[in-house]
Amino acid sequence: MKVGFIGTGSMGSTLIEALIQSGALEPEQIIASNRTIQKVHNLASQYPGLQVALSNTETVEQSDIVFLCVKPSEFKHVLDEIAEKAHAALILVSITSPVLIKHLESSLKCKIAKIIPSITNYVWSGASLCMYGSRIQTEDRLLLEQLMMAISRPLQVSEQFTRITSDLASCGPAFLAFFLQKWVGAAVEETGIDREEASRLACEMLLGTGKLLTEGGFTLEQLQQRVAVPGGITAEALRLLNDELEGVFQKLIGVTHAKYEEDLEKVHAQLFDHEINRPQY
Ligand SMILES: NC(=O)c1ccc[n+]([C@@H]2O[C@H](COP(=O)([O-])OP(=O)(O)OC[C@H]3O[C@@H](n4cnc5c(N)ncnc54)[C@H](OP(=O)(O)O)[C@@H]3O)[C@@H](O)[C@H]2O)c1
């Protein structure tokens, strides 16, 4: 099996490296193309055997599965380029949330899946969000999930919930890192503790908390109850957080969904600017 990657930026290269390092793929099974070809050459010198494709059509021609890892604004260009070579047996996987499966199925004749990865997949952890088009067969789904299982927990989600599931699984690491950065900054400012020490403590805490909530059998509510004994210090601090963060997450969801809608409109206009009506989703 040969797996192609179009776009080896942040997420394309993260997927390639994680799939090789986890043993899911040998470098020889990978072919990749990127607008700036030097990025693929860099990966090939790091992972000898990885094939550098000089064009996106070469990647498509030589692959059984192709991961499309470019930004939404680049989709039209790439789809036009590869349309002729994307034969019916090929599985094309988009990793981009604001490009709908129906957009892709109407642009290409191959099988279409959407899998939204997360930076956490780099350390073979976190979820990958799987959505399948109408041409995907059971064996295709199993093949994709077996591949993603080496670096993540593949979860099938409804495309209707692409944005909110991506917020949680994909944007979440950035949000939590921001939260900890702010907390560590305040700790340094308020107490004079060494920044590196505070940062290390916070990161170890996050790892342990994640384990308790996934392997340790705790729910989010149970974990708070277990730590925050009535009348104690944690309970006081939780009360403050509850008051101060009132409405923040609703606003956060509002912002991510507004940007998603904007991107959807742009992609749709690029792909179907000859049509009058925007598709329902
Ligand atoms: N970053 C994440 O954590 C994450 C998580 C889940 C999903 N995603 C999705 O993944 C997609 C890519 O994000 P990213 O963070 O990897 O962006 P990125 O770092 O900008 O990578 C995009 C890559 O696509 C290449 N490219 C652009 N046009 C191309 C073309 N016509 N042919 C071949 N390659 C082309 C770019 O090449 P150049 O080197 O020339 O710029 C760049 O290397 C986005 O839609 C994003 O929503 C990202």
Automatic annotation (TrEMBL):
InterPro entries: 6-PGluconate_DH-like_C_sf, NAD(P)-bd_dom_sf, P5C_Rdtase_cat_N, P5CR-like_CS, P5CR_dimer, Pyrroline-COOH_reductase. Keywords: Amino-acid biosynthesis, Cytoplasm, NADP, Oxidoreductase, Proline biosynthesis. It comes from the Bacteria. Residues 2-97 form the Pyrroline-5-carboxylate reductase catalytic N-terminal domain. It catalyses: L-proline + NADP(+) = (S)-1-pyrroline-5-carboxylate + NADPH + 2 H(+); L-proline + NAD(+) = (S)-1-pyrroline-5-carboxylate + NADH + 2 H(+). Pathway: Amino-acid biosynthesis; L-proline biosynthesis; L-proline from L-glutamate 5-semialdehyde: step 1/1. PANTHER family: COME OPERON PROTEIN 4, PYRROLINE-5-CARBOXYLATE REDUCTASE. NCBIfam families: PRK07680.1. This is Pyrroline-5-carboxylate reductase. It comes from Paenibacillus apiarius. The gene is comER.
